[in-house]
Each structure stands twice: as structure tokens, then as C-alpha cells.
Amino acid sequence: MGLFSKKKKEEVFCCPIKGRVASITETPDPAFAEKMMGDGIVIFPTDGVVYAPCDATVAFVFPTNHALGLKTDSEIELLIHVGIETVKLDGQGFKMLVNEGDSVKKGDKLLEFDLEYIKDNAESIATPFIVTNLNDKQTIKIQKTGDVSASEDIFSIV
Asked: Which Pfam families does this chain map to (predicted)?
């Protein structure tokens, strides 16, 4: 590293949902657990509200309201996917509070969901929160696992 070169700033993201956080490899879905979609964490929610984990733009909202994508100013693409096989619920139990193209600030409410309905009608409440566009030089550094509140820093990209 040269005398005047700058170290790239580490980006930190907070947990979007209150619950128990674990490695993405603990997701009960191979596409997520094997990091086919990207790397990150899985949250087992104890609350039915999803908050913005950072300042971003809403890149997309699934028509069934079970998942959404965010894009940061630094081009990081994030996916929050509430539950496993929740697309089959056809929007039941979900209330999206944002639209594609909206600018959101860290802590803004994005989505509400009926946790009991998801438990009773979906394969799992496991909620992957992943970075979908990591490059070969970037990795996820998990800050905390176990019980986490929705405002705590949860992982960084290094």
C-alpha cells in the first residue's frame, strides 16, 4: 500500500428484523444456504416488521410482497426474503410499505408481515438477508449472531 493510498471504507449494515441471527448456511433452503444467491445472514424473526438496514433505494419489490431488493449509493445490492417458500402465499400475510424507486433511510419501516400466519402456512420463517453482488475481493464479516434487535449492526462488507 502506498504512502497516500486510502483503505476502502468498510460498509456496515444493521439487522432489518428483530430475531435470532445465524450464518446464511443455516437457512433451510439450499439456494440460500449454499450461497447461490449471495452471502449474508439468516434471521429467524421474533417480530413482524422489516426495517431498512441502511440508506438505499428500493430496487425491486416482489409482486407477492414477501421480498424486496435494495441498492446503496455504492452499488451494493441487498435482498431481504421473508420466509422460505413464501412466494406460494401469494401476498397473504404481507403488507409492503414501500415501492420500487423509493429512497429509504436506515431504520425506515419497509414491510410488515404476520409472523404467526407465516409460521402456519410457509415452509419456514427463516429470512435470508444477503448481498447479491459481492465481487471476488469482498467478504461478509458477521458482527453478531444470536438474539439481535432491528437496529444493531449485523454485518459488514470487507
From this structure: PTS_EIIA_1 (PF00358)
